[in-house]
Structure formats: structure tokens, C-alpha cells
Amino acid sequence: MPRDSDAWPDEPDESDPEDRWGDPENDLVNVPSVGGEGDEGDDGDEQPVEIDSELASTFWAVVVLVNVGVAGVSLGAMFAYFRGNFLLGGGAAVVGALALVRAYYSYRGYKAGDAAGADDTADADDAAGADETDGDG
């Protein structure tokens, strides 16, 4: 009596559908790593990049404010619409909107201060250059 596994002895073996792609880990293009001169992969010897403390604090303040703003506006709208709780929903939406406005003004204030700082540096360089050329007379 034949076994259950031999129910169709003349059936061909199923092919593996992944055989048509070959070995992707060996066949793919070797992409070089991004790094400086003499950087060979991930050695872990990377030097940290120095970032201006004002830039870092402004960045994180804007990140937190935008997160609070998006959460407040979206939760406020959901509380107002789904629960009918307009007091809580409206309050959350107002707090979220104020947080987004504050994030916008924080970003614009830093950008304006950064541009003013660049202009001051450029003006100082221009003034130094003008003093040198005035002495030729």
C-alpha cells in the first residue's frame, strides 16, 4: 500500500522561485561607504562633529514644540469630533496651535539671527578690506 507522501509519484518537483534571482548578496554592486580620506568602513573611531550650542538648543526646542503642536492639534480635533468634548478638544487644539506658532517664530528668529551674524561678519571683512585699500592713495 502506498504512503501518503507517494500519492503522486509522477508529479515533478517544485522549483524554488528564488532560484531565478541567484545570490543577491554576492551579485549586487559593492557600494562604498561614505567617509573622509582613508576611512575604511565602520571602525568606530569617528570624531564627533562640533555644533554650535545655540543651534543645538534651538533645534531641540523646535523639535519638542512641533511634536507638542502636532499632538495637541490632532488630539484636540479628535476629542472634539469623536467624543464631543469641545472644552478639552478646543483647549488641546489651542495649545497645539500655540506650540506650532512658537516653533515657527523660534526657527525664524534663529534664522534671522544667523543671517544677521553672517552679515556682520561680511561687513567686518568688507570694512577691513576698505581700510587696506584706502592707504594706497
Automatic annotation (TrEMBL):
Ranges for domain DUF7322: 50-108
Alphabetic keyword roster: Membrane, Transmembrane, Transmembrane helix
Membrane-spanning parts: 59-80, 86-105
Biased composition (Acidic residues): 7-17, 37-51, 120-137
Region Disordered: start-end pairs: 1-51, 114-137
Protein name per Swiss-Prot or TrEMBL: DUF7322 domain-containing protein
Organism from which the protein derives: Halogeometricum rufum
